[in-house]
Amino acid sequence: MEKELKIRLAQEKDIEEMIALISLVFSLEKDFAADVEKQRSGLALLLNAAERACLAVAEIDGAVIAMCSAQLLVSTAEGGWKAIIEDVAVAETYRGRGIGRRLLAYVEEWAKKRDVKRLDLLADLDNKNGLAFYSRLRWEKTNLVGLQKKI
Predict the structure, then answer these.
(1) Beta strands of 13-151 (E only): which ranges?
(2) For labelling alongside 114, which of 51, 63, 72, 108 has CA 20 to 30 A away?
(3) Residues in the chain, pLDDT under 70
(4) What is the pLDDT of residues 62-74, one digit of tens each?
(5) This model's pTM is above 0.85
(6) CA-CA distance, 83 to 142, in Å (whole number)?
């Protein structure tokens, strides 16, 4: 019998499981490295910013097996809100079951309720599986290049 998948907003009790999921994401990205204390701090900030951030998890039998976050920003190009999607992660043993798709749909519904005009996300150029996944969900490449500067 297939166990029931539940998509919901994250809670403080989920932080340790989300840290483990984020480490999966960072293992694929050359620009970032897992740092438990930084991830714990970032997740706490997201949980405390519920008016402008969505931190969603997927769970089966009480275990968090996937996560995704979104944060609101103003888009002058759109003349309204946009949401930045980050930390899309599904535990390896649960991949290929539509969980990532359902998680992103949940976050998209959260965004629509806030009159978000556009969703943006960054993906590592070498993450072929991730890029193929986003392509199947009709995410489109842009001419924009992600840049960063640490201060």
Answers:
(1) 53-60, 63-75, 80-90, 116-121
(2) 63
(3) 1-2, 29
(4) 999 999 999 999 9
(5) yes
(6) 16
